[in-house]
Design goal:
By secondary structure, the chain is α+β, with helices and mostly antiparallel strands. It contains 13 helices and 20 strands. The longest helix is centred in the last third of the chain and has 19 residues, at 402-420. Bound molecules: fe (ii) ion (FE2). Fe (ii) ion (FE2) is lined by residues 222, 228, 232-233, 405, 409. Residues 222, 228, 232-233, 405, 409 line the site of fe (ii) ion.
Amino acid sequence: MSTPVKIAGPRPGQDYQKELARDSRPVPDFLKLNAPDTSGPDEVEIYKYISREYHDLEMERVWKRTWQWACREEQIPEVGDTFVYDVGPLSVIIVRTAPNEIKAYPNACLHRGRRLVDYDARVTELRCPFHGFAWNLDGSFRSMPSPWDLPHVEREKFGLPECKVDKWGGFVFINMDPKAAPLADTLGVVPEHFSRWDLENRVMIANVSKVMRCNWKVSQEGFLESWHVAATHPQFLASFGAITSQYDVFGPVNRTLSAIMGDSTPMLGRSPSEQEKLDSLTIQYLAGAQGPQVPEGVRARTHSAQQGREYLKTVLGPKAENFCDAELVDSIWYSVFPNFTPWGGPGVRQQYRWRPWGDDPEMSVMDVIVLAPFTGKRPPSAPLRMLGPDQSWREATELGSISLVEDQDAFNLEAVQKGLHMTAAKTVTFSKYQESRIRHFHRLLNEAMARS
Ligand SMILES: [Fe+2]
């Protein structure tokens, strides 16, 4: 008689919480929270992914009015450093105006409307390349050619309008809406849940963006559930808790907790050895290569966590001893509306973001940065590697094994966009629990789009 396959559905999060109960260290309370919420829509209309009209309205009601991660503080370390944040046809200039002050302006010259800044640079003023109108870093008007010919321009009223700016965890956020509520309302529990991981004192060791031929929501939704891992990333079947992942909603944010090398991998159909669990995480696994050996009688999960702890002790000091196994090995990732997915943990972690690209509802860009702890003086940040729609994520060798995973995802996501034009259905349909983060996202999107 075969053993019945365990499923997460009837008791969401139960398998993940069982892993936490076996942890070799005390588990922080926020990981023990199990907060399922399936209240978002069952179905979403297909026009939302392909329609020009919907895209235009998103620009007005979502992108011009929400807090968005624009850059890392480390990308503008010195006064005068500028960063251009583009989202669809919109563009914002982020400027460090003083050692402890960052400002942001709509990226347009007030003379004839030219995009004011084209490239990230270190400057002493913001000068339009068209006629040479210039503004000080603080946004006040500085100079123009032929002032005798513009007697109607009042210098005091000709300052650049400002976008709102705030920071969390080394991320710089902007909001184009001067009446926006504080960033804290958008981040919800994230600062509290991430307080052990100190993302501020991290350095970008990889910074890769790729243009994708799909709507930004198609791309993002591919990362809001883990059950596709079994079909899309089968190399992880022995180690990834694909259908045993836990999905939570906390007010404006949601999260997934997926056990790595845990005890519950029902989609494999058999129990893998501890060695196979560890091997399956290496990029050479599909070619039959073995990774480092797991000592006899030790769980791969416990072994990997201890190795992570030993490494982190050399960077973070003795406090690394207190991190639990889950923090060191599991996939823990949150979503902040509309497009930011911070991954949690004390070690090397990727961070994701999705943006509309150009002014085309069927094009987007996915941004992946990798943050790592460091000792001593802050190392230089990785420069941006920009991949076009025909380039492979695997060209970004600095992403390591993530690059193969991203290519596997891209293979589906662009095909989803094509299929949306051909499906006989008028909607896409979401599962109740495993796609509850997508439901939550659409609940927030509907709320944003309903605002006048
Ligand atoms: Fe995936």
